[in-house]
Amino acid sequence: MQAHWQAFLCALQFLTLIPVRLAGMPDQATQARAFLYYPLVGLLLGGLLLGLVWLTQGLPVAVQATLVLVLWCGVTGGLHLDGLADSADGWMGGLGDRERTLRIMKDPHLGGTGALVLMLQLLLKWSLLQALLAESMWLPILLAPLVGRSAVQFLLLGTPYARPGGIAQGLQQLSRLPILVCGVMLAVLLLWLHPLVPVMVMVTFWGLRLLMQRRLQGYTGDTAGAVIELQESVVLITALVVL
Fold first, then answer.
1. pLDDT tens digits for range 182-192
2. Are 124 and 72 in contact (CB under 8 A)?
3. pLDDT in tens, 164-175
4. Dihedral through CA 154, CA 155, CA 159, CA 163, nearest 10?
5. I want to staple 8 with a disulfide (CB 3.0 to 4.6 A). Which of 37, 78, 93, 200 is the partner?
6. Domain limits at 137?
7. How many structural domains comprise the chain?
8. Is residue 152 part of a domain?
């Protein structure tokens, strides 16, 4: 039980800025086990967002959406937004070359393409939050962070890592059963929301994975972050259109 609790705290520490205290420096086994708790961290994040939505009822929708987006970015520290921006820079500047793309994504500086994509993603999320909150559609806001982090689980388990070693080490020893069970449960929940939601999530996932395979022959931490951000937006967009 203690090992699983430490793994959850490790996942929380890695994916958010929520202050947690670990028993010590997590070893490779704990870091790998933490991977199983990514969806739970996403659900926790979604719960925090809904809590703020509930607390800010009565405020103008634009202000409410802004506060929710600030919390969304603040709790995650912009980690996945950074991955999206770096991926955009790499894809544009890489000119189709694998090594050049990887080199640009590893550069800590933000390029013009990355800055543009970052601003557009934030604007898209803000406008989607406004539209959903105006219709009192709260459930997609709860599910979007969960879907994003569940998608990363399937990306990391079913796709080679583009660089040697790195975050992929240790994952091969994990049991796939808990992830598959959680994935099926999430798919059923999304089907209940509307059949088009899981379809769009899966189409987006396989489309992004295909792009990574063709350009990089695998994924990186940056492209994993991009998957989280884009999957979150897909859930919000699709829910707004069909509900």
1. 889 999 999 99
2. no
3. 765 555 566 677
4. -140
5. 37
6. 27-242
7. 1
8. yes
